[in-house]
Specification:
There is one protein chain. The chain is an alpha+beta fold. Helices cover 25% and strands 28% of the residues. It has 15 helices and 34 strands. The strands form eight sheets. Strands 1, 2, 8, 9, 10, 13, 21 and 22 form an eight-stranded mixed beta sheet that branches. A seven-stranded mixed beta sheet has the order 6-5-16-17-18-15-19. A seven-stranded mixed beta sheet has the order 25-24-30-27-26-33-34, covered by helices on one side. The longest helix is centred in the middle third of the chain and has 24 residues. It is globular and about 75 Å long. The site of flavin-adenine dinucleotide has 34 residues, from helix 1, strand 9 and helix 7. It comes from Trichocladium antarcticum. This is Phenol 2-monooxygenase. GO terms for molecular function: FAD binding; oxidoreductase activity, acting on paired donors, with incorporation or reduction of molecular oxygen, NAD(P)H as one donor, and incorporation of one atom of oxygen.
Length: 636
Amino acid sequence: MAATRKVEIVIIGAGPAGLALANWFRDSDIRVLLVDTKPGPTPRGKAEGIKSTTNEIFDSFGIGPQITAESWRLEEIALWGPRKDGGDGIVREQVIPDRAEELGKARESLLQQSRVEHHMLQNLLSHSSLEIKYSTGPTSVQIDESHSHPGNDYPLSINLARVKHDENQANGTQTANDLNEDGNIEEQIRAKYVVGCDGAHSWLRKQLDISLEGDLTDSVFGKSSRVVDMIPKTNFPDVRRVCYLRAASGTILMVPRNNKEIRLYIPVESGSALPDPKDLTFDRILAAARQIMAPYTLEAGAVSWWSAYRVGQRVGSHFSSANERAFLVGDAVHTHSPKAGQGMNTSIQDAYNLGWKLRLVLQGRVPVAPGALLQTYEAERRPVAQDLITFDRGYLKLFSASSAQFDTEFLRAMKFTTGLSIRYLPSCAVQLPRGVDALGPSLLKADLVPGKRLQDFQVVYQADGVSTRIQTRMQATGAFRVVVFAGDVANAELLARSQRLGEFLADPVSGLGRLTMARGDTSATWQQVPVEVLVVHCADRNRVSLLDWHEVYRPWSSDEGYDYWRVFADAESTHDGHGRVYERLELDGKKGCCAVVRPDGYVGAVVDVDDFQGLRGYFEGVGMLQAENPVVNDKS
Ligand SMILES: Cc1cc2nc3c(=O)[nH]c(=O)nc-3n(C[C@H](O)[C@H](O)[C@H](O)COP(=O)(O)OP(=O)(O)OC[C@H]3O[C@@H](n4cnc5c(N)ncnc54)[C@H](O)[C@@H]3O)c2cc1C
C-alpha cells in the first residue's frame, strides 16, 4: 500500500511558473511538494526574453545578480524590408533603441529558460520544507469541498506515480509516457492547496474541468512556426541586433543570444520560402532563411536546438476552483505566440501574484474566509491574460505594418510587454480609500497608483549616501511595506507629520504596531515583521539626521543596534546620478504621501501622511488585523 503524508501545497509542474511559485516558500516552514513528469530541469530551447519586471522578481528571490551576470541585454532593434527600387533583396529601414523611458533601466535581457530554471531550482534546494520530485506526476486528485474553509485541514487527496521516459531521437529531448494509473501509485498526498503549473496541456486543468477559450491558431504568423538556435556564419551586418526581416519570400524574427548564437523564428505561412510539410528538416529551414536574408549569406555553425511549434491564443475560463483550493498558473491557463516574449514572463508573474497570498493564508496572517485574498488571484491575473491575447494579435500584425508605423506602435507595445500598463482592479488587496471616482486626473496620470506596480527607482541611503534601487530592497519575504514619502523633512512641520505617523505605525493598540513592531528585540525578529516601514524623503540629506526619526523608521535590535537601511533620500548619489523619484512619481515634496506596497511590489493603497484611518483600513480590509491566531501546520 502506498504511503500517505501531508504537505500544505502540491505544485504540479516545475517549469518557470512552478519554480517561481515554490520560491515564495523557501524561507518558511510551509511544506511544499513540487512534482514534474520530466526527468530534470528543461535542458534547452523555449523561452529566452526576460523583462525587467521579471528581473525584479529574481532580485526579490535573491538570484537577480546571478541571472543578470549570465544574461545578454537587448539595446537595439533593426527593421529590414524589401528594397524600394523593386530590386531583389532586403535593406535596413531603421534602427530603434529598445527602451521604455519610465523604467530607467534595461527593458529586456536574454537568458535561456533552462538557465532561468536552473537558478530558481538552486535557490530552493537547500530549504528543507521544499521537496522536488522529478519523473513523478499525479494520477488522481480529489477535493473534499465540504472541508473547505476554515483552513486548518487537508481537503485534497492526490495520488502520485513514477514516470518512465523514452528518448525522443529527433531532438534529443525526453517525453513522459502516460502515468500508470493503477499499479504504480507511489504516494498518497493530503494537501491544503494544489497548483497546476503543468503547461499548455495541463493535467490539472482537465481534472478541474476548466476550459480554454479562444483561437487555436496564431493567425498572422501562420498556423505554425519554426525556431532555430545556432551559431551563424554570415555577412549580415545586424546579426547582433534584434531584427525583423520582411522579404517577399517570408519573414524572420532574429534575436541575438548570450553566446555567439542567434535564434531565428520563421513562420511557416508568411511567404513562399517555407512551405508547410510535416517532415520539415533543418536544411529546409536554413534554405528558407537564406532566401529571406538574400543578398546576405548564412551558414550554420553549431546548431544547439531547433523545433516547430503551433500556438493557440487562449485563456482559461477560470484560474481557480473548489473554493480557492486549486489554482492554475502560467501556460496551464493561457497560451499565445512566443514572439513578444511574454509566456515565461507572464507565467512567472502569475506565480508571483499567487505565492504571497498562499503564504500569508498558510501562515495564518490573513483568514481563509471566502471572499478574501485568494480570490484576488483570478480577479487580477485573468484580465492580464486576456489583455495579453488581445495584445498578441495586434503585436503580430505590427510586423506587417509599414516601417513608418512600426516604431510608434512598437514603443506602445513595449509599455505593455514591460508590464507598465498593468493595473489591478480594486479589491481587498487594492484599495482606493475615497473610491474610484475620487481619483483626480493627476493621480491617475501619476505612477504611484493603487493596483500598479511600484516603479523601481534609485534612492540613496540617508545613513551613508550609497545608492540602491527600491525594488532590490523588497525581498520576497511575504512582508508588506509602508513607504512613507515624507517630503522635504528639513521643514519642521513635515518632519513632525512623519513623527506623528511613526507613533501611529508603532502603536500596537490603535495603530499598526502589531504588524510593524518585532516580537523580540533581535535583528532576526525584526526581519519577520509582517509590515516593514520605509521612508523616502526629498530634503537636503545634510539637514536630516537618522536619529531624529521615530524608532519605527530605524528600529533598534539588541544584537545589531540601529537598522540604517530603512530611511532613503531622493538625492544625488556620488557615482550614480539622481533618481528624481518625486519628479518621476509626480509627488508633492511639500506634502508627501504614504503608499502601502504589497509583498509582490504592487501598490495596495496610497493615502495622505495624516490619513491614519486609511492605512488601518487597508490592513483591516486585507484581514491582517483580524487574524490573531496563526494556523498551526499538522506535522503528521
Ligand atoms: C519556441 C518558444 C520560444 C519561446 N520564447 C519565449 C520568450 O522569449 N519569452 C517568454 O517569456 N516565453 C517564451 N516562450 C513561452 C514559454 O516557454 C512558456 O510560456 C513558459 O515555459 C511557460 O511556463 P510554465 O511553467 O507555465 O509551463 P511549462 O514551461 O510548459 O512547464 C510546465 C511543466 O509542467 C510539467 N508537467 C506537464 N504535465 C505534467 C503532469 N501531468 N505532472 C507533472 N508535471 C507535468 C512539464 O514537464 C513542465 O516542466 C517560448 C515558447 C516556445 C515554444
